[in-house]
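Data card: per-record layout.
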Amino acid sequence: MAIMGSKRKKFDDVYKRPFITDGYFIYAQNDYNIMALDCPDEMSEGLIREICAVLNGGTGHCIGVKSVNNEIITLENGHELRVRGWGYLTSHNIPPKIAAEMQDEFAKWVAEQLINDSK
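The structure for this 119-residue chain is written out next.
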């Protein structure tokens, strides 16, 4: 699949809904891993499923976001959500700098969805 074309791609050209989860990771429509919660434990599966539902347009319980630092989203509960995809993007001929920007833009979008859901 060619991702790069004549125009600059945006994160949503690659990170597409519906997102799915196996309880540990969240995957984009094309089945590559795009997010992981930092420390899987007995509560993580429910949280990652809730995040996935929110990203697909559903509503969840209050999932507060404390901060976003590049690809790392720190949740109010102390967990970190790590957005992935840079390697996938660069393997499809997207220059490293643009791939990093796309991944970071996606992380900001994810945080906005979680913030909007918690209001």
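Known properties of this structure: Strands lie at 20-21, 25-27, 33-37, 65-69, 72-75, 80-83. Residues 11-117 form one domain.

See the next section for split statistics.
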